[in-house]
Task: inverse folding
């Protein structure tokens, strides 16, 4: 219980600190440009604050319930996410050439964010009651098929970053479930090959790939975001210009408040601030993986691993893109970037982790996988004759060494 208490405290502390820090940085990244354009300097902060309140409410509800109930809701979540991912292609709001959001009055919802959580819950539920895939053929049905359907729908939007996140997340669940490393390596080789083919056949993604290789070839056009992000981070130095004193965010760095907010942090808080932020995600990853390793419930173990990989994987992909180590994919930074759907789903996921860490995963009963049941839960240890272990000893029904009677019969 002490280790669980430490994990709960770490997850809660890091999530709260990153969310509060994100509100500060969203205000810093948007207030100056809004004021110069005669807009509301606190507009983005107010909207992000409302989303944070909704996310905190979702976190509290998820943390107070029982995560095992999600196992029964997994099919419903997947079907709902699939329907919404199809619907966004038809009725979604087009922003910067992409259909990723469904508008609800002044608010907007991104179905791909729900798809991430739905897929991690479904994969955890499926693998908790079935043996891990041993071959590519076992992996293809139904996990590979479902991931492929979601990936195709998200690619049409287009949103390559979410597809990468889905693949990383499912891989973490498969690894914890016991899938052999050669099988995972073969699957990732196949996925990378298909991803390269999809990127090459799409003019939009092919242009982004060439821009990543040499952003300075067109610093005022296709490479503008890459170049300005590097300038922003480099100009911050060790300690930064000071909170709110950044220059690049004022009409120089595109999307400074969303997927490029790490560049704003690097400019205003310098290497020290950026390192502290990365350390926060490392602490979150440590607590989440420690929880996944120590969890006795099969469903909880896979769910904790998947959610940790989902949050920290997005943070790592975003960091690589901003630093110029990977092509830009539009992945927001969890907790910190502006975006209502991302923040609400992330806080809801943290609530599920807190629920697992609070002690629901560890019970007084021994964790023996129930292969006879359909829910992949646990059962009390019983003797093979049907009675309890204590009763078996009391009645003398114990196993003897095969040679004991023969040894007693010898003269």
Result:
């Amino acid at each position: 219980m002490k280790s669980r208490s430490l994990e709960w405290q770490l997850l809660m502390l890091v999530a709260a600190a990153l969310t509060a820090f994100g509100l500060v940085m969203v205000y810093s990244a948007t207030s100056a440009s809004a004021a110069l354009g005669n807009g509301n300097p606190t507009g983005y902060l107010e909207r992000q604050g409302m989303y944070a309140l909704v996310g905190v409410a979702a976190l509290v509800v998820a943390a107070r319930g029982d995560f095992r109930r999600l196992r029964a809701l997994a099919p419903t979540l997947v079907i709902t996410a699939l329907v919404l991912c199809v619907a966004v292609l038809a009725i979604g709001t087009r922003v910067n050439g992409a259909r990723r959001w469904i508008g609800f009055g002044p608010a907007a919802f991104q179905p791909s964010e729900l798809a991430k959580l739905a897929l991690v819950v479904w994969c955890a539920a499926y693998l908790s009651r079935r043996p891990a895939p041993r071959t590519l053929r076992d992996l293809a049905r139904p996990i590979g098929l479902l991931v492929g359907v979601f990936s195709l729908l998200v690619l049409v939007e287009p949103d390559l970053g979410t597809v990468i996140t889905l693949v990383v997340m499912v891989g973490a669940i498969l690894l914890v479930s016991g899938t052999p490393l050669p099988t995972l390596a073969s699957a990732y080789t196949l996925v990378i090959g298909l991803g390269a083919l999809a990127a090459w056949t799409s003019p939009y993604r092919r242009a982004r790939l060439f821009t990543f290789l040499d952003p300075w070839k067109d610093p005022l056009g296709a490479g503008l975001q890459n170049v300005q992000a590097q300038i922003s981070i480099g100009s911050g130095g060790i300690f930064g210009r000071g909170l709110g004193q950044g220059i690049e965010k004022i009409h120089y760095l595109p999307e400074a408040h969303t997927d490029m907010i790490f560049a704003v942090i690097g400019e205003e808080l310098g290497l020290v601030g950026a390192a502290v932020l990365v350390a926060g995600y490392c602490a979150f990853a440590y607590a989440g993986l420690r929880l996944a390793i120590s969890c006795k419930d099969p469903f909880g173990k896979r769910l904790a691993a998947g959610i940790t990989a989902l949050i920290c994987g997005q943070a790592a992909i975003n960091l690589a893109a901003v630093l110029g180590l990977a092509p830009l994919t539009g992945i927001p930074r969890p907790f910190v970037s502006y975006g209502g759907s991302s923040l609400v789903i992330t806080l809801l996921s943290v609530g599920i982790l807190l629920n697992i860490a609070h002690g629901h995963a560890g019970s007084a009963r021994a964790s023996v996988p129930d292969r006879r049941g359909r829910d992949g839960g646990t059962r009390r240890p019983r003797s093979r004759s049907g009675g309890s272990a204590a009763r078996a000893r009391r009645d003398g029904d114990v196993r003897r060494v095969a040679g004991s009677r023969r040894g007693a019969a010898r003269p």
About this structure: The two ends are 55 Å apart (CA to CA). The longest helix spans residues 2-36. Strands lie at 93-95, 98-104, 107-109, 368-369, 378-379. The chain has a mean pLDDT of 83.
